[in-house]
Amino acid sequence: MTYPSEVKADMQQRYTYPHTIENGTGERITFSRGAGGTAGDRLEAENVVKPGAGPPMHVHHLQGEALTVRQGRMGYQRLGQPPQDAGPGETVMFEAGDPHKFWNAGDDDLVCTGYIEPILNVEYFLTEMFASVQRHGAGRPDPFDMAFLVTRYRAELGVLEIPPTVQRFVFPMMVALGRLLGRYRRYADAPPPASR
Predict the structure, then answer these.
(1) Are 128 and 149 in contact (CB under 8 A)?
(2) N or C: which end of the chain has fewer CB within 10 A?
(3) Cα 47 to the center of its chain, rounded Å
(4) Is the pTM of this model over 0.70?
């Protein structure tokens, strides 16, 4: 795996902690700090998820993720396995390459603390994706933003609910069109992707 020094330097200069993002559809993440971990730098965070909300099935190709439930019930599922749940004090770990999703399976806010390790570009990706959902206003990111972010950071993470043919053929065409239309000026300072 290549972890460009530019990625680490960018993360250290881009954000001031705590750094909170919200997507307007029931998810709020507060990144608290970067710290040393066993597999490289670790990004620690707290997330608050409204009932029924949570990220789609996704995979961190190069990163491990751990979530500890502090309040509420977390439903989670690994690809091809039945749904499970975790309650206060329980920790769920997803190894690099382990497709998964999680959601608030209760009636009150789900509060979890956790980390992703190594950091790479996950904070940038999520910050921009959440901002796109807010700008787009339809409960989903703008399709051009989604195409850019998923294509640029595909070696780091994948969104499995988007068909592979769309990601492989349609998204690159959308990115090319988006560049022609000037839709990606906001990403002029996007950090370089890491690679396997």
Answers:
(1) yes
(2) C
(3) 12
(4) yes
